[in-house]
Amino acid sequence: MRKVTIDDLHLKGKKVLVRVDFNVPIESGKVADDTRIREALPTIRKIIADGGKAILMSHLGRPKGGFDPKYSLKPVAEHLSTLLGMSVKFAPDCVGDEVRKMVDELKEGEVLLLENVRFHPEEEKNDENFARELASLADVYVNDAFGSAHRAHASTEGVARFLKETAIGYLMQKEIEYLSKATSNLEKPYVAILGGAKVSDKIQVIKNLIDKVDAFLIGGGMANTFLKAKGYEVGKSLVEEDKIELAKEILDEAEEKKVTFLLPVDCVIANKFANDAEFEVVAVDKVKPDWMILDIGPETVKRFGEVLENAKTIVWNGPMGVFEFENFAKGTFEIAKILAEVTKKGAITIVGGGDSASAISKAGLANSVSHVSTGGGASLEFLEGKVLPGVAAIRDK
Ligand code: AMP
């Protein structure tokens, strides 16, 4: 690891400002899924154990640049208190005199969570003065928010410029280590499984991976645009008409470069976009005009499985169908099962993206793959070979 990590720092007595990713779902004033909070615990516990003063900051949702109780991190402070088994203090803002006073009163081993940084529009603008104000609260900056590392915001990037000591936290370190395996020194065959709603979101990923992977397995809504590009009629399925030409170019490039590019051969079609829709499994050339493709079919799962069976490195981003509807989740869950099996046999399997991560935990297999990334956009940009601003901002060793 080239970056300074939290293990390289002396934290005792220091005010440690940590950017965490506590962007968690809140329902009726309670944390509905605490995965991201639990992922940040090792870094927080390290600061407590070393006698540092932990000042945590995060965004939550997309508030319109002012205080909004709906996006308050207060429920997170309460939940974190329970997880840590100690009282976590909560500041009503992330900058200002009151916050500074709370920071100054912090004792060694105590934890303070600041209010949502996005209540200030300066956060997303990466405003220099705002970043400087955040930095002035602390002696050391630690970035452990992998899920936000692809964004150059004040709390993820700007702040690092105003503190001499900067480091990445354990979660960030774990994410970078696993994702680096997928981009360098990886064992082949290397297979990318891509799904989700749109081709447009993943075009850059395909382009950047085409010289690296041996095979692409394409499912989900994005497969429809490729099927259409190959001349299939896909009825009322989600298709990006303006991306059909691009899909053709990608298919040609894959053929030229001898990269296996598998599309569904069969699919589950439905007469409406709902879980209680009528549905049928058909070959991709038999999609009914008024119906839509909502999942990959069993023959596709089998063919994808044959490729995955021999793979040594697999990255997966995007569900194979509308897995939120039970009747159209099968393809996604079957792929999750195959990933768990090949992991047991020694393949490195990396699942990235919010939806794929939630699909794999819904399938009960989150612990059966090598790595589930906490970052959707961030893991994709990393796999595309881009430098993440939140990582770049941290000093090298
Ligand atoms: P993304 O955020 O791009 O990874 O897309 C995830 C979303 O794609 C999920 O909410 C799925 O329901 C949706 N999706 C997957 N397959 C299809 C499909 N065949 N038609 C429409 N939406 C789909």
UniProtKB/TrEMBL annotation:
What coarse category fits the chief subcellular location reported for this protein?
cytoplasm
Top EC class per UniProt? transferase
Q: Which GO terms describe its cellular component?
A: cytosol
Please name the pathway.
Carbohydrate degradation; glycolysis; pyruvate from D-glyceraldehyde 3-phosphate: step 2/5
Q: Where does (2R)-3-phosphoglycerate bind?
A: R36, R118, R151
Q: Can you say what this protein is called?
A: Phosphoglycerate kinase
**Binding annotation for substrate:** D21, F22, N23, R36, H59, L60, G61, R62, R118, R151
Spell out the reaction equation it catalyses: (2R)-3-phosphoglycerate + ATP = (2R)-3-phospho-glyceroyl phosphate + ADP
* Entry GO MF terms: ADP binding; ATP binding; phosphoglycerate kinase activity
> What is its quaternary makeup?
Monomer.
PROSITE patterns noted in UniProt: PGLYCERATE_KINASE
Q: Which Pfam families match?
A: PGK
Which keywords are on file for this protein?
ATP-binding, Cytoplasm, Glycolysis, Kinase, Nucleotide-binding, Transferase
Could you say which residues bind ATP here? K202, E324, G353, G354, D355, S356
Q: Does the keyword Transport apply?
A: no
Q: Which family, according to UniProt? A: Belongs to the phosphoglycerate kinase family.
Species this protein is from = Candidatus Kryptonium thompsonii
Keyword Transcription regulation among UniProt keywords: no
Give the EC number(s) listed in the UniProt record: 2.7.2.3
**A biological process from GO:** gluconeogenesis
Q: Which InterPro entries match?
A: Phosphoglycerate_kinase, Phosphoglycerate_kinase_CS, Phosphoglycerate_kinase_N, Phosphoglycerate_kinase_sf
Places the protein is found: Cytoplasm
